[in-house]
Amino acid sequence: MWAIATLAVAVLSALAVWMVMRAQTPDLPVTRALIGVGPAERLLSDQMDASMGLGRPSRTAMAFSPDGRSLVFSAEREGRVQLYLRRLDQLEATGITGTEGAFNPFFSPDGQSLGFYAAGALRKVPVNGGPVVALCTVDLVFGASWGRTDQIVFAHQAGGLWRVSAAGGTPTALTTPQGDSGEISHRLPQLLPDGQTVLFTVTKSSFPSWDETLVVAQSLTTGKRKVLIDGGADASSTGFPTPGPLTGR
């Protein structure tokens, strides 16, 4: 009887603690916001959108600044495509000079510079205005990310990832698709805050179904890989540490 009573007291105590902790945990509300692109007319993700008259929002059409206070996007106004900077405490966006025909914007880690693709080259420009600098000649870009070590990682439509110095130079290969696994391309890279790991999407067809892709993390120092999500794409960093040791697939 004493054992049963002790067990009952323990269960009731645990239940009471759980109920108190649950009551103290606030329910976080879902936050929604509708952000206009004016004075632009519509978002564009690449030059194909512009030529076909499409306005498809996508990850490569926009980028939030590291402090979360600004949004840069590629958009069209009166047939002219360029990048726009929308500070979230203002009502309208401002066109960024020198970014005509640009898409796939991405911020530097300090938020002071902006990378993008335009006219056959990867380029950068100060967010608050200044000269546009060409970093390297490149085909269409399928995602790019600027890391804390001042390296920019970017993707083509097919093949592996490449990287180039944020000061410009000749790109070097970073990853190679595993042909024996049916991989065709590595796209949409995101460098993690540790500066030593890159997330990217693995595709197995030229026009992939995004539920048939993989999200992979790869070490920039050892080259070891780890599949994080099977059936996912376009992962982005949240500022948390790398999820688990990269010991291989």
Would you mind describing this structure in some detail?
- With 249 residues, the protein is mainly beta.
- The protein has two domains: 105 residues, 6 Propeller (Neuraminidase); 108 residues, Neuraminidase (6 Propeller), CATH 2.120.10.
- The chain is 12% helix and 35% strand.
- The protein is built from two helices and 17 strands.
- Strands 1, 2, 3, 4 and 5 form a five-stranded antiparallel β-sheet that branches. Strands 6-7-8-9 form a four-stranded antiparallel β-sheet, with no helix packed on it. It has a four-stranded antiparallel β-sheet with strand order 10-11-12-13, with no helix packed on it.
- The longest helix is centred in the first third of the chain and has 23 residues.
- It is globular and about 50 Å long.
- The protein starts with a helix and ends in a 19-residue tail after the last strand.
- The mean pLDDT is 84.
Assigned CATH superfamily of the largest domain: TolB, C-terminal domain
Named CATH architecture of the largest domain: 6 Propeller
Largest sheet: 5 strands, antiparallel
CATH topology of the largest domain: Neuraminidase
The percent range for helix content is 10-25%
Number of E-state strands: 17
SS class: mainly beta
Overall, the morphology is globular
Give the key terms:
2 helices; 249 residues; Neuraminidase
Give the arrangement of secondary structure elements.
Blueprint: H1 2-24, E1 42-43, H2 47-52, E2 62-64, E3 70-77, E4 80-87, E5 94-95, E6 103-107, E7 113-118, E8 121-126, E9 133-137, E10 144-146, E11 151-155, E12 161-165, E13 172-173, E14 185-191, E15 197-203, E16 214-219, E17 225-230
Antiparallel strand pairs: 1-3, 2-3, 3-4, 4-5, 6-7, 7-8, 8-9, 10-11, 11-12, 12-13, 14-15, 15-16, 16-17
